[in-house]
Amino acid sequence: MDSSRRNVIVSAPVLRPASDNCIHTKNVFSLLDLTEEEESFHRIKKHMDTCPVCESAFRKFEQKNLETKVFIPKPQIDSETKMVFESEVHELFKTFDFNEKTRLRKKIKSNFKKIDMAGLDFVKNLGSKNMLKTYALGAVLFVILRQFFN
């Protein structure tokens, strides 16, 4: 058993002094993915403010991250594709109205047109042949009932 322990001890990684090594260094990189509202962000940030090893590792990582972004090419569209895209988008905007005020204005206008049409239909019905017959019948009934009850 002593020989197996020696093998384990010999094969174990050699740790650097505490000033060069921190077990939290691997967690510091998650700061890039966290939002400031999360509790983990504040905990890691607080540790980073007190630990120079983690702060140094994070600054190096940030620097490398910024350096690699320089080499990422910006997407460019050839002129033919750009013209086709612009014409299709223009046609889409003609077809679909995404402006909230314009949509509301059109909706109000259509509702007023419906009300206006209902009013016109009402007036037309008041002056139709059937209504004129109804008015005449009502007047005759009124005269007969008035004479009968007087």
Describe the structure.
It is a single chain. The chain is 73% helix and 0% strand. It folds into two domains: 2-70, no CATH class; 79-149, no CATH class. It is built from seven helices and no strands. The protein is mainly alpha-helical and 150 residues long. Mean pLDDT is 78; it is low at 1-19. It is elongated and about 115 Å long. It has helices at 2-11, 25-28, 39-50, 52-70, 79-95, 100-126, 129-149. It comes from Bacteriovorax stolpii (Bdellovibrio stolpii). This is Zinc-finger domain-containing protein.
Distance between the termini: 130 Å
User: What is the CA-atom radius of gyration, in angstroms?
Assistant: 42 Å
User: DSSP helix count?
Assistant: 7
Low-confidence runs of at least 5 consecutive residues? 1-19
Number of strands: 0
Please provide the ordered H/E string of secondary-structure elements: HHHHHHH
Structural class: mainly alpha
Total individual domains: 2
Helix content: over 70%
Strand content: under 5%
- The coarse silhouette is elongated
Overall pLDDT confidence: 78
Characterize the biggest β-sheet.
none
Protein name: Zinc-finger domain-containing protein
Keywords:
0% strand, single chain, disordered N terminus, mainly alpha, elongated, 150 residues, 2 domains
Topology readout:
Elements: H1 2-11, H2 25-28, H3 39-50, H4 52-70, H5 79-95, H6 100-126, H7 129-149
Helix pairs in contact: 3-4
